[in-house]
Queue: 2 jobs
Job 1
Amino acid sequence: MSTITTKPLVGVSQCLLGDAVRYDGQSKANSIVIKKLGGIFELVPICPEIEAGLNVPRPPVQLTGSIDNPRLTGRDNACLDITDIMQAYCKNKPTELKHLSGFIFKSRSPSCGLNSTPVYIDGRCVTENSRGIFAKEFCATYPSLPVIEESELEIKDQLTAFIMAVNLKN
């Protein structure tokens, strides 16, 4: 008698899987995500900016104006504002992800940063500990779901805790 086991489904910022979806047409392939976590979990790629309809390449954006309710505006062109596009995407996408047992976010991303995204007010960085627009909405929708930024994967205790939490959730 054989037992069929399924791997927990874990969302992951798509650029961490080596896909060239970032604003500059590059990826941020992460070997821990691909080699280690890819063997433990079934990884579900998500790129909020692409899924919201933005192109590759695209102008770089950053969080601006307010720590609590930032706008997503152009880094090199402040007239570019994609806040409404991203908020429309975030209104529905998190509820479509209820099948996930965890999420791995791209650090410092204005969409996916978990606790490391800079916010600029009047051209000056006022914090580097904010949350990207998608990450904020996702975590508000699933406050008890295990989440981690890829920069935290290098810390063995945090990586182990994340793996255990996801497996418990499954």
Note: The chain has one domain: 9-169.
Job 2
Amino acid sequence: MTLVQTESRPADADPAHRTAVEVMDAAGPQVCDDMSVEVALAVMAAARTVRLVVCDQDAQCTGLVTHAELAAVRDSSDYTDRVRLRDILGDHGSFPSPVTTMAEAEHAMRTRRLGVLPVVDEQGSALGVLALSR
């Protein structure tokens, strides 16, 4: 697995020393953590995306959910329409900043077994996402 790179780069650039801001994708749709799973799935379908950045009432990034995660929750026997995104967010730990090197970000993602991770600014607002490719 290697990190997805969305920008062209000089052949001599060392990918490990590039920063998150240089290779991150756009954050895409951001939703509030009090949104229900069903509504989040509808937002994903309308936006034609497979992930949503989740924020709290103060617009601070609290995590990210994928279509696969939401579908698994919806299909579980414990699911009710009262389940909110904040109820299913795992502990992703800290998020990389725009100046985090790709080597650091990739190590964190592999250690935490995350395929995608938001990049946040100093105030905790999502700026973009980093994704591991297979």
Note: The first strand starts at residue 2 and ends at 3.
